[in-house]
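If you are new to this repository, start here. Below is one unmodified record pulled from the training split, so you can see the exact layout before writing a loader.
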Amino acid sequence: MAGKRKTNPAGSSNELRGDVLRVLGVLKVATADQIQRIERPHLSFRHTGKPTPSERKTARTAAHCGALSDLRKHGQSENGGRTKQAETLRNLTLKGLEAAAKALERPMTEMGGTARGTGSSGGTHAMAVNETIIAMLRPKPDLKLLTGEPAEAQAAARAVAGASPGIGTIASYATEIPLPANGTWSAPGKGGAQADIVLTAPQHGVPLLFIEVDNCHETAEELAAKLEKYARFFRRKAKDTDGREKPLWRTRWAVTDAGPDHPYPPVLIVFNHIGARDPNRTVVRLAELTRHLWKGEWDPDGYHCYDQKIPIVATGLRNLRQHGPAGPAFRRFGRPGQQTLLDAIGNPRLDAARARQRAQIKANQEEYQAQLREIRERHAEREARRPACTGCGAKLSDARWKAAQATDWDTPKDTRPHLCDTCSPQAAATEERTAEEQGHREHAAVADAQEADRHQRPEPLPDWAERRHFLRFTRRPVCTQCGAAFTDERWQAVERTGLDVLPQETRPHLCGNCDQWYKVDGEQSWPHMDPLPRQEERDQERDQEQAVPERKPTGWFSRLRR
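And here is the target side for that same chain:
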């Protein structure tokens, strides 16, 4: 503990000294009260039991005053005079500025100067700049650190914590930034401007904002000349690291244009009414003088286009403290009424037009998706009805399906509607081969039938058979015993009916040889029986019977017979 006291006699902590370095690194010059209100706003609601405001301020700033005392011992800060309210102004030395650059994580080239000598005249403008930054920040107290405080203090702290939010952190701000119309960033030439405050808080919708603070000492013409310098700076171009030429301010600050136009960064003018001039009249005159810098062109889609124009916004420090950046405390040149900061530096009509376009695009996309879903459903339904090839199982193509369903009179009917384009030719070839084979088989069968018919066709009848009207056998008979065909003599013999001169054959189903064998077999089997009468004997008996004359009947029966 003794070692720490020797290093930091006031007993300040690293956190408190870091608070001082960060604030003074941005503001360049400030009071202990301002440092405390920015970094430890909850201390403003402590020590409420002190009888006077002076004692309460001394109590709540004691910790940061100790940190300033320790930094002064280390040669990093110094007292820079007093304000008109007799508050001590604190600023950093060059050594402290280097420490602040590390605390803010900024390059030393962007830290600016030490603002030594600012307090010699009371630092009125610097205090207005600081109060503007505090009004833009609107620091919120940590209610957990006020648990043991009186109810009135906690209620006041809750009211502040529940008010409209600010923009950015202390690291989002920078002061006394040169805007060279010629020269370089570190050595700007004449004719350039110097921004009182530069705000970069893209996380809160403010990618880049230049702020000018006026204590109502400057005329409208002087402010217009300063805005002309801003315009010169915005129009200046330089080559970037990629070798392409672009506006100089874009080489230091990254800003993305989200719209069809390319406006310059907005400029906010904050009037602190402590001078003799009326800010209301100054604003009207300034708007007229700078109309060519901020006036946009009307677009048929319902918004103004501010391409290569400077959005100029004006407000009062008192209104800014009361409403904050999220309140209606800002007036945009060329627009009626008061707006929030984001609306004032933006383009609400353009945002509305984009919202309508996005809504229309979304509606079109939804309609398109609905059409796609309907098409997919119809396609799925059609695919479900699409027949499959019975040969390979593949789905039929559209052309094949259409050809298979053709019902026009002039369209030939497909003989194989159940087959695909691949299987149909194969089936046709198979059918052709089958038909060809069938034709060959039929031709062979016809030839075989003709050959068989030729063999089975009866031979021409003999002359004696053609002279007969009735034939027992219309074709040459075959022996039932041996299967041999009859000879002409045997055929003629078996055709006798008994009415001829020769008697009828007793065995007409046998050929001549088999008939002789039949006779021989009979005589050998029954030798005791008389042999069959011979043909000559039968013929003689028949001749004798024919030689006997027929006896004619007599009497009346003969008449009936005739």
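Two things worth knowing about this chain: The first strand starts at residue 29 and ends at 30. The chain has a mean pLDDT of 84.
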